[in-house]
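Submission checklist for the structure archive. All mandatory fields must be present; incomplete records are returned to the submitter.

[x] Identifier: 3-phosphoshikimate 1-carboxyvinyltransferase
[x] Organism: Chitiniphilus eburneus
[x] Residue count: 431
[x] Sequence attached
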Amino acid sequence: MEHLDLSPISHVAGTVALPGSKSISNRTLLLAALCRGETLVKGLLASDDTQRMLEALTALGVKWEQLGDSRDFRIHGCGGDFPVKQADLFLGNAGTAFRPLTAALALAGGEYRLSGVPRMHERPIGDLVDALRQAGALVDYLGQEGYPPLAIHPGRIAGDRVSVKGNVSSQFLTGLLMALPLTGRDMTVTVEGELISKPYIEITLNLLTRFGIAIERRGWSEFFIPGGQAYTSPGEIFVEGDASSASYFLAAGAIAAAPGQPVIVTGVGKQSIQGDVRFAEVLEQMGATIERGDNWISATRPTSGRLRAVDVDLNHIPDAAMTIAVAALFAEGTTTLRNIESWRVKETDRLSAMATELRKVGATVEEGRDYIVVTPPAALTPNAEIGTYDDHRMAMCFSLVSLGAPVRILDPGCTAKTFPTYFDELARITV
Ligand SMILES: O=C(O)C1=C[C@@H](OP(=O)(O)O)[C@@H](O)[C@H](O)C1
Ligand SMILES: C=C(OP(=O)(O)O)C(=O)O
C-alpha cells in the first residue's frame, strides 16, 4: 500500500487558503440544478465528493460548465424537472450527494438507480427512505434492506406530513428539506427523537433561503415548508472555505505554532455559516489562543506551552471532533469526547478506527458506544504505521502526530474525498 512518511515537525506557521466547503459545494450544486435559470457558483471544492455530484448532474441531463481552469462553475438549472428520466448514478462515498439526491429523485418522477463504493452500501439510509415513502415515493433496496444501492421509481406524491428519525444522520432531514419544495404542497417534517449534527441543518436552511425557499423551523422537531415555492437562482453564489478542513491547521497551530507566529486559515471566520468553525472554541478551552476576523481564524499555542485536556460533548461538530481526538495526544491529562455515536456510520467506524490507531502511537484509549477517552503517553511511539481505512479524516488528523514524532500514513491519497492537496498545504506551514 502506498504510504507517506512524515518527519517530525518542530514548528508550524503561516497561512493556508482553505478549499471550498464540501457541505456548501454539494448543496449549492443540487439547488442550482433545481432552479430555473443559471447560477454562477464560485470557489467550488475540487474533490471526489463534489466530482460525484457534478457527474450525477451530468447523468441527469443538467448542463454545467467550468469557467476556464478556475473553480467557478455555471450551472444551468432545470427547474426541478431533470431532462433525463432514467439513469444510473454512482455516488462514491459522498453522503452529501447520496442522501439529498435520493430525496430529490424520489420526487422527480423517473427511474433511477443510485449506488456507491462498498462502504456507502454499509451506511444507513433507511430512515430517509421511510420518510420518502410516507410522501408516496417508490424506493426499493437493491441489496440489504435499509442500505444503498437503491432503485427509485415514479411515485404518486400525496399527503402533507412526513416524519424522519434524527439520531443517525442529519443528512436525511437535509435531503427532505432540500427536496420537498418540489412537491409544491404545504409540507410539515417532524423529527422523531433527538436530532444530531444540528449545525448542518442550519447550513441547509441558509442555502435554501438563498435559493428562494423559506422554511419555518419550529425548534428542532418540526419544519414547515409552505407550498407553491419555486427554487430561484441567487445569480451568483460564493462557496466559503471548508471549516472541517480548517481544523487540522488550527490544531497544528495550537500544538506547535512557532513563537510569535500563528497559523492562519483564510476562507472561514466570524461570518461563516458552518458549524465546524466552533472547533476553534474547543481549542480555546484547551488553552490555545484563537483570533477571528470575518474571513480568517488564527491559532497559537497556549502561553503555558502545553494544551490541557477537555471533557466535551461534540455532537454539533462530528467531523472536526476527530481532530480533537488526535490533538488530545498533545494535551496534559485525559480528554473525553462525548455524544459522537454517528462516527460509527461514516467513512469507516471512526470510533473503532480512532481507538486502534491512537493506541499505535502509545495512547491509552477507552472506546465506548458513543464516546472516546484518550490519555496521551509520556512520549509518542515513533514510526507508527497509521491505517486510514479509506477515511480522509483519519489521514488528515493523524498527520498531526508528526508534530511530536515521525509517523507513516498509509494510503495518503484517501484525502481526495474532500481535500486532495492536504499534504501539500501541511508542508507549506512547516517551518
Ligand atoms: O450535511 C452535511 O453536509 C454533513 C453532515 C454530517 O453528517 P451527519 O449528519 O451524518 O452527522 C457530517 O458528518 C458530514 O460530513 C457532512
Ligand atoms: C462524514 C463525512 O462525509 P459524508 O458527507 O460522506 O457523510 C465526512 O466528510 O467526514
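[x] Structure attached
Curator remark: The two ends are 29 Å apart (CA to CA). The chain has twelve helices and 25 strands.
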